[in-house]
Amino acid sequence: MEKRSAAAGLSGGIELHPARIMNMISAARFGTTVILCEEVDSTNRIAAEAAAGGAPEGTLFVALRQYSGRGRKGREWFSTEAGSLVFSIILRPQETPESLTTLMGLAAAQTIDEFYPGIETSIKWPNDIFISGTKVAGILAESRGKDVIVGIGIDVNETEDDFPVELKSTAVSLRIASGSKLDRGMLLAAIVDRFEILYTRWEMEGLSIFRFDIEKKLLWKGMEASIETGDGDFSGTVSGVTSEGYLRIRSNGEERIFRAGDLSLRVEER
Ligand code: BTN
User: Fold this and answer.
1) Which long-range contacts (CB under 8 A, 24 or more apart) does 245-250 make?
2) Where, residue-wise, is CATH 2.30.30.100 in the chain?
3) What is the pTM of this model?
4) Selecting from 3.75.10.10, 3.30.930.10, 3.30.565.10, 3.40.50.300, what CATH number does the domain 4-214 have?
5) Which of 23, 117, 132, 168 has a CA-to-CA distance to 29 between 20 and 30 Å?
6) 44 lines ligand 1 (CB under 6 A)
7) Residue 151 alpha carbon to ligand 1 centre in Å
């Protein structure tokens, strides 16, 4: 189903050349093996397949063309060959993997902030990265037994014309937000380095040590929002996250904790 290549020979192929990326990654555990797929349905799928076959923890799958990217709730993830950065990493955590979506979100958001001091990213709980109200990245963690695949898609160098009509008002790329293009290989290496640092601390101390950092970036914190869960909607003020990374929403003096759900800003009726 996929075509793999060490060097795809295209400009994206050079930018995301595995040897180049491995050279730029200073992390010791993650990214020691990088596989560039010229074309693949989903990097999460291929990473899961490789993990089941015994591929080591930290193996990275990057795609030039991902034609059936998986999103949350069975949605499809749109990406472009010229502009997107899509990759997945194999993990085998000892602890419950629930927090890994948040951890990758934090690593990617902090890395983007570092590359673009003028931009401020937010984390839309539980798995999106936003810039000024529009989505720039999404994360999907999938578990199969002891294997956990964490995949992220980031709109890096897309222009407005690259997005399909239905995404034009909700999606943004780093290029649109900042006015400048970015080397996707460099961004990838920097995210992997940061993610390894966070992951190593998380293994020793859990997610609670990142609570402050997550809350600092939490989209709509202190604002009125609604959360859609399997049991219906709940509205209130987004107050933060728990030490496990669950969402806290306060309403009428009562605080409720959500482990899953779709959050949206509540527009006040006039
Ligand atoms: C979402 O916002 O619903 C999550 C999107 C996750 C997309 C990434 S792209 C790389 C990796 N491979 C996939 O098939 N999905 C994730």
Assistant:
1) 245/98, 245/99, 245/102, 245/126, 245/207, 245/214, 247/125, 247/126, 249/225
2) 221-269
3) 0.94
4) 3.30.930.10
5) 117
6) yes
7) 5
